[in-house]
């Protein structure tokens, strides 16, 4: 395992860099650390960082690039006879990779015709030989390069160390660079996700007309190649279920927040608030089970034929209402916790002013506290709405799978998220519009929730400026 | 050193509005107010002075039961408004606060329009029978608070957009519009500049015609300028209570003298 050994060598060099840096600084200060610009460990840390960061960077880049170079070299010597037959270059290279990596792990060098495991295609042996040889050479050069970089950078870092050297400031800069790297990684990942969806979406619109996707009225994927793939019935289901969820969650969550922040004593609050927030920690699949096993059958006993109400409105246990109610329960802690924080942020002087004029507690809340907190509460509701739109598990288990336009909340419908799951988890070809439509759906969903989140953040931020 | 109050001080024949007797206030285990007895007169400005933490604001908040909103606060003793015990079980603190209005240290207009701020109290208590009557109440309250001229063209603008001094006068107008009998003011000028302070002080003097005004202040000059009666609090005790001129020119208690001459506080 040359990589592991190389890593240990770099660590050892880092450690010695730390001690040499420390010693150099101490020697330059004539043994008294009070004469130094920075505290002693900073000099060591400066040297250690200068060794480990560039050398690991070189190692990471090398490990990423080397297989690409080695593979393309091996691919060049693939026998043309095999290529023209039924096996593609990709399949042949997979075998080269598999056998080659095995041999590299065993540390084999030189001619290896005898060592190749049984069952390997004989014609591939030259390619495998080249692969193994190149990999070994690559690792050797990588070790040399990494150790060289470590030594050179360490030397460069050690040279300026003396009593006046500002090691504290250089360490500070390194830490800032680390934090920036972490922040950019998160942002770049988001950009990457959006771009990958964007490219697949463009592929999809190359295969399927965009007018049907955005303005058609039927969702009927099939594998004959004449599918109707329209987002509108799915969007309708999504928005309908989200609306029911919000009708359940907003009043309940808001009233809970008002009770917790305005009426409850410190003891009740300390007990009830965490209890309410436990609801937020329940995995959505568990809510889905609750929808499937409890709420659905309960609604069936009320509304289906032969049910308690004697009406025949509901055909099966899955319905918009089932999913909406359960999703609403899921959103209650979300709304209440955010609203609670916002209501608490309303200054006490507002309440005093209202109470001092002879208003009752609830008049104060209705006419002063809630209006003052309203923009923040609206923001909380919009955030809850974007969670509802993006929710998957509850609708998979509670809402059914029929894409249609209907106003009856007791019928089953389906949402964008559940269709993404079903289009991608089938055995469809990855280049067919029936599969690629998932990316277009995902991007539409992303744009929808992003818009809601931006709106919510905008409203919340505008509200925050009021009391500052 | 002290400006002589501009109005004549014949307060002796005035009726007692609020009578407090042996009032004790506890915050948890802290004894914040000890044995305070005081008679506050009608149509008089009474100033509470004293060093920080002496209990003057706490005592002020007892007079309209604002201390009820603080969980750990307990009030004992006897406080009567027009002879009626305000801590009696039958008294509704909400009704009481309509009669004993309050203006706070920091201007706290509601995030509503200027009109709605002033109309807040009358609407809650149903003081106006129609829109035109409400308009009249709002206008007269704003006139009383010397704010009408500045805001009459923008009654729909938010109250939070006014300047600090205007906001405080808006809060006074808001309190006046509820038609209280007593007006409690907790350091109403501490967040204001000297010009706004002068306007508010002038206003307080005019309010005396219709209300009893009780004002807590850290400024002894202000107490001397606006009040006819002054009470000096120290460490939760009411040390001395008397005519403002007497307190500032001829104090009886040595602690009062030390405070007004700046030796303690």
UniProtKB/TrEMBL annotation, chain A:
A GO term, aspect molecular function: phosphate transmembrane transporter activity
Localization annotation: Cell inner membrane; Cell membrane
Topology of the protein relative to the lipid bilayer: Multi-pass membrane protein
Keyword Mitochondrion: no
GO cellular component: plasma membrane
UniProt KW keywords: Cell inner membrane, Cell membrane, Membrane, Phosphate transport, Transmembrane, Transmembrane helix, Transport
One BP term from GO: phosphate ion transport
Pfam families with a match to the protein in the record: BPD_transp_1 (PF00528), DUF3708 (PF12501)
CDD domains, sorted: TM_PBP2
Spans through the membrane: 43-65, 140-158, 178-199, 239-263, 275-296, 316-335, 368-389, 436-460
The keyword Transmembrane helix is assigned to this record: yes
ABC transmembrane type-1 domain: residues covered: 235-456
Family according to the record: Belongs to the binding-protein-dependent transport system permease family. CysTW subfamily.
Function: Part of the binding-protein-dependent transport system for phosphate; probably responsible for the translocation of the substrate across the membrane.
PANTHER family membership: PHOSPHATE TRANSPORT SYSTEM PERMEASE, PHOSPHATE TRANSPORT SYSTEM PERMEASE PROTEIN
Name recorded for this polypeptide: Phosphate transport system permease protein
Organism: Thalassobius vesicularis
Gene label: pstC
Automatic annotation (TrEMBL), chain B:
Keyword set, alphabetical order: ATP-binding, Nucleotide-binding, Phosphate transport, Transport
InterPro entries linked: AAA+_ATPase, ABC_transporter-like_ATP-bd, ABC_transporter-like_CS, P-loop_NTPase, PstB-like
GO cellular component, one term: membrane
Molecular functions per Gene Ontology: ATP binding; ATP hydrolysis activity; phosphate transmembrane transporter activity
A Pfam family annotated for this UniProt entry: ABC_tran
Positions of the ABC transporter domain: 18-260
PROSITE patterns membership: ABC_TRANSPORTER_1, ABC_TRANSPORTER_2
GO biological process: phosphate ion transmembrane transport
Keyword Nucleotidyltransferase: no
Keyword Ribonucleoprotein: no
Top-level taxon: Bacteria
Record PANTHER family: ABC TRANSPORTER I FAMILY MEMBER 17
Protein name: Phosphate ABC transporter ATP-binding protein
Organism of origin: Thalassobius vesicularis
């Amino acid at each position: 395992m040359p990589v592991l050994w190389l890593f240990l060598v770099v660590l050892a060099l880092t450690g010695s860099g730390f001690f040499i840096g420390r010693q150099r600084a101490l020697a330059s200060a004539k043994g008294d650390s009070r004469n130094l610009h920075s505290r002693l460990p900073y000099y060591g840390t400066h040297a250690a960082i200068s060794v480990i960061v560039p050398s690991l960077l070189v190692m990471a880049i090398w490990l990423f690039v080397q297989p690409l170079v080695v593979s393309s070299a091996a691919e060049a010597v693939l026998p043309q006879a095999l290529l023209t037959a039924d096996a593609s270059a990709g399949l042949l290279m997979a075998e080269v990779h598999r056998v080659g990596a095995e041999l590299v792990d065993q540390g084999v060098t030189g001619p290896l015709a005898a060592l190749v495991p049984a069952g390997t295609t004989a014609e591939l042996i030259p390619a495998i030989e080249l692969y193994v040889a190149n990999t070994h050479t690559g690792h050797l050069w990588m070790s040399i390069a990494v150790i060289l970089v470590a030594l050179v950078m360490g030397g460069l870092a050690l040279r300026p160390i003396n009593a006046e050297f500002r090691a504290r400031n250089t360490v500070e800069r390194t830490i800032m660079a680390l934090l920036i790297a972490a922040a950019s990684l998160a942002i770049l990942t988001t950009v990457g996700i959006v771009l990958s969806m964007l490219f697949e979406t463009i592929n999809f619109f190359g295969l399927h007309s965009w007018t049907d996707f955005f303005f058609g009225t039927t969702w009927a994927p099939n594998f004959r190649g004449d599918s109707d793939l329209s987002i509108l019935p799915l969007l309708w289901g999504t928005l309908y279920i989200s609306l029911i969820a919000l009708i359940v969650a907003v009043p309940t969550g808001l009233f809970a927040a008002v009770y917790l922040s305005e009426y409850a004593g410190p003891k009740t609050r300390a007990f009830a608030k965490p209890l309410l927030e436990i609801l937020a920690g329940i995995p959505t699949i568990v809510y889905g089970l609750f929808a499937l096993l409890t709420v659905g059958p309960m609604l069936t006993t009320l509304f289906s034929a032969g049910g308690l109400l004697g009406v025949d409105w509901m055909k099966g246990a899955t319905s918009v209402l089932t999913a909406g109610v359960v999703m609403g329960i899921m959103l209650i802690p979300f709304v209440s916790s955010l609203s609670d924080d916002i209501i608490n942020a309303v200054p006490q002087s507002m309440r005093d002013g209202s109470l001092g004029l002879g208003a009752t507690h609830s008049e104060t809340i209705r006419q002063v506290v809630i209006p003052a907190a309203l923009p923040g509460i609206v923001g909380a509701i919009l955030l809850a709405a974007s969670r509802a739109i993006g929710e998957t598990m509850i609708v998979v288990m509670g809402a059914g799978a029929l894409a249609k336009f209907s106003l009856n909340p007791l019928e089953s419908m389906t949402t964008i998220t559940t269709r993404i799951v079903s289009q991608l988890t089938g055995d469809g070809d990855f280049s067919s519009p029936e599969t690629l439509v998932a990316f277009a759906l995902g991007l539409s969903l992303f744009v929808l929730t992003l818009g809601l989140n931006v709106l919510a953040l905008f409203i919340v931020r505008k509200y925050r400026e009021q009391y500052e | 050193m002290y400006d002589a109050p501009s109005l004549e001080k014949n307060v002796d024949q005035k009726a007692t509005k609020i009578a407090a007797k042996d009032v004790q206030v506890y915050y948890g285990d802290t004894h914040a107010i000890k044995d305070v007895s005081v008679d506050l007169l009608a149509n008089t400005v009474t100033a509470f002075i004293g060093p920080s933490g002496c209990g003057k604001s706490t005592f002020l908040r007892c007079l309209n039961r604002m201390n009820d909103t603080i969980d750990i606060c307990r009030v004992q003793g006897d406080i009567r408004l027009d002879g009626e015990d305000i801590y009696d079980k039958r008294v509704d603190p909400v009704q009481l606060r309509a009669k004993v209005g309050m203006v706070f240290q920091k201007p706290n207009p509601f995030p509503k329009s200027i009109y709605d701020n002033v109309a807040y109290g009358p609407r809650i208590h149903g003081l106006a029978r129609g829109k035109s009557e409400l308009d009249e109440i709002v206008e007269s309250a704003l006139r009383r608070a010397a704010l009408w001229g500045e805001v009459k063209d923008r009654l729909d603008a938010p109250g939070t957009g006014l300047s600090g001094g205007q906001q405080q006068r808006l809060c006074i107008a808001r309190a006046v519009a509820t038609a209280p009998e007593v007006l409690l003011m907790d350091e109403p000028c501490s967040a204001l500049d000297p010009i706004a302070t002068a306007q508010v002080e002038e206003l307080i003097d005019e309010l005396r015609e219709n209300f009893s005004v009780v004002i807590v202040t850290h400024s002894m000059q202000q107490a001397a300028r606006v009040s006819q009666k002054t009470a000096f609090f120290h460490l939760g005790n009411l040390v001395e209570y008397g005519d403002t001129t007497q307190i500032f020119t001829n104090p009886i208690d040595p602690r009062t003298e030390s405070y007004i001459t700046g030796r303690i506080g």
